[in-house]
Specification:
alpha+beta; four-stranded mixed beta sheet; 42% helix
Length: 153
């Protein structure tokens, strides 16, 4: 069952509105369009996971898209969280054109496209951090629920 639907991010809606309202000769149009293109590609990549997830039995799984939770004083975000009775799976989607490889020495993802290399943060480290934060979030919620339950007696 989809508990939290995926929506077009506000940043994309704002960039679309800005690009529509500015004259095409405005000096910021190229940078706005470039940012919009990157964000829309990311959203398209995140949305691509929806089709395979649609084959899951709705009564056995809870699906949360674009989930933002608070871990202590910080917030963390996950593209998709799939929860069943037996496990929780963090799904972090990257939509990157070109050839990619993981550089374990510098902990980064390298994209090679049209002879140019671009470095990105290592998504494995990102998901490991999200896993740790999600575990802490679950433990805090379980402890709070247990504390509330036992304080009633």
């Amino acid at each position: 069952m989809i508990v939290k639907e995926r929506k077009v991010p506000l940043s994309i809606l704002k960039l679309r509105a800005l690009a529509h309202r500015l004259p095409q000769s405005h000096p910021k149009i190229p940078s706005i369009m470039n940012e919009l293109k990157k964000r829309e590609a990311g959203f398209k990549g995140e949305s691509a996971i929806d089709f395979p997830l649609s084959f899951l039995e709705p009564k056995n799984y809870f699906i949360f898209h674009d989930l933002r939770l608070q871990d202590q004083s910080r917030f963390f975000q996950m593209d998709t969280l799939l929860v069943s009775k037996k496990f929780a799976l963090i799904i972090e989607v990257k939509n990157i054109a070109g050839s990619i490889y993981f550089d374990p020495h510098f902990n980064q993802l390298i994209r090679k496209k049209e002879g140019k290399e671009t470095a990105f943060p290592d998504p494995i480290i990102q998901v490991s951090r999200q896993e740790s934060q999600l575990k802490n979030w679950f433990l805090k919620k379980i402890f709070s629920a247990a504390h509330s339950f036992f304080s009633c007696y």
